[in-house]
Amino acid sequence: MGMTRSAALVAGLAPGLLVLSGCGGGHGALDGAKTDYAQSFGDTTLTPTFTDVRNEGRALDDTLDVLEAAVDASTLGSAQAQWRVAHTEWSRSEALLFDRLDDLFFIFQVDEVDVDTAAVEAVIAGATTIDVDLILNSGTQLKGFHVLEYLLFSDDLGGATPLAALQASPRRVAYAASVAEELELRLDEVLTVAQSLGLEASVATTREARLLVDQVVNQVILRAEQIADQGLGRPLGMTSGGEPQEVGVESPWAEHSIQDMEAELAGIRLLWRGADGDSGLASMMRLREPESIERVESSVRGLEYALALLEGPLLTAAENDRPTVLDAFDSAKNLAQTFRVVLPRGLLVTGFASPFDGD
Question: From the CB of residue 171, how many other CB atoms can be counted at a distance below 10 Å?
C-alpha cells in the first residue's frame, strides 16, 4: 500500500478506470472514521480474507497429491470439490486486489481464463520433466486455476472423460499436481503481501486513510461493473449483437460461473458492510448520508436475488433463459451505478473516469 508514500496508494488502479482523489480537510468525524477503518483494515479484512484463500489453495494442493497417488472416481471427485471451494474463495478475494496486490507480476496468471488447451496437451504428450519448476517458468495460459479446471473437469482433446484421461496418463496427473503446487506457492506470496499492506495501514495517517477508502470505493464499483460486463455481458453477447461469447466466460468446464459471480458479490458485500456487518463503507456513510444506505442495500439485494434465479451452466442459461440472465445483468449495472452515485457524495470522493460510462 505504500503508506509512507501516499501516491503509491493509487498505483494499483488500472489505467483509465476509476481514478479517485480524496477531498480536503474540514470533515473531522468522517476523517476519523476513515482513519479507524484504514487502521483496522488489515486485521479485519485483508489478512483473514487472504488467509482463507491460502488455506483453501493449500487444501487443493493436498487433494491433488492424493489424486496423484491413486486416480479413481473418489479422489477425482475430492479434487473437483476442493477446486470449487478454492476458486470460490479466490473470487471473493478479488475485490481486495488493489495497490501492491494488483501489482504482483503473477497476479493475473492465477485466474487467467484463456487457457491454451492445445499447448497444455502438447506438454503432457512431450518428454519434458513435469514439476513445479516447469509450471513456474511456463506462460500464463499454461497455469493457474483454469488450467487445473480444464484438467479436472474437461474431456481431453481426444474426447476422453477427465477420469479416463487422467488414469491413462501419469504425465497428465503430474501436470495437474504441479499446477496446484505452483498455485499454492503464489497464494502464499499473495498472503504475505496482504499482511504487509495491513501492517502499513495500521499506522495510516488521515491522508493515507482517505486514499485507502478511495481505493475501496473504486473496487466495489469496478467489481460490480465486471460482474455485469464480463460475467454476464459476454455470455449474453452484449457487445457482439446478442451472439454469446464463450471466450472469457469463467469456469465453463466446472460449470461454476454463477457461483463465481455470487462469490465476487460476497467480496463487494465485505467491503460495503464490513467483516462484522457494521464496519465497512456503509458505517461511514451514516455520518453524512444515512438515507442512501438503504438505496445501496436494495441494489445489493437485487443482484443477490437475480443471481440466485440463474440455473445451470451460464452459457446455456443465456441461450435458453435470456430474460433471467438479462435481469441479472441489469441488476449488476444498477448496483455499479448506485455505488457510483452514492459513494462519492456520501464519502467525499471525487474524480470518476470510467470506460464503462455510457454503455
Answer: 16
HSE value, Cβ hemisphere, 13 Å, CA-based, for 277:
0
DSSP string over 100-133:
HHHH-TTHHHHT-----HHHHHHHHHS-S--SHH
Q: Are 226 and 316 in contact (CB under 8 A)?
A: no
> Under a CB-based contact definition with an 8 Å cutoff, are residues 264 and 92 in contact?
yes
The tens digit of pLDDT for each residue in 188-215 reads 999 999 999 999 999 999 999 999 999 9
- Could you identify the residue written with the cell 475430492? 78
315 backbone dihedrals φ, ψ, rounded to 5°: -65, -40
CA–CA distance from 113 to each of 77, 99, 249 (Å)?
A: 22, 22, 7
177 and 64 in contact (C-beta within 8 Å)?
yes
d(CA 143, CA 175): 10
* CB within 8 Å of 298: residues ≥ 6 apart: none
Q: What is the DSSP string of 41-91?
A: HIIIIIHHHHHHHHHHHHHHHHHHHHHHH--SHHHHHHHHHHHHHHHHHHH
Predicted confidence (pLDDT) per residue in 341-359, tens digit: 999 999 998 544 332 233 3
Q: Can you say whether residue 328 is alpha, beta or left, with left for phi > 0 and alpha for psi between -120 and 50 degrees?
A: alpha
Regarding pTM above 0.85, the answer is: yes
Give the span between the Cα atoms of 191 and 162, in whole angstroms.
31
Cα(13)–Cα(10) distance, integer angstroms: 6
With a CB cutoff of 8 Å and minimum separation 6, the contacts of 139 are 116, 119
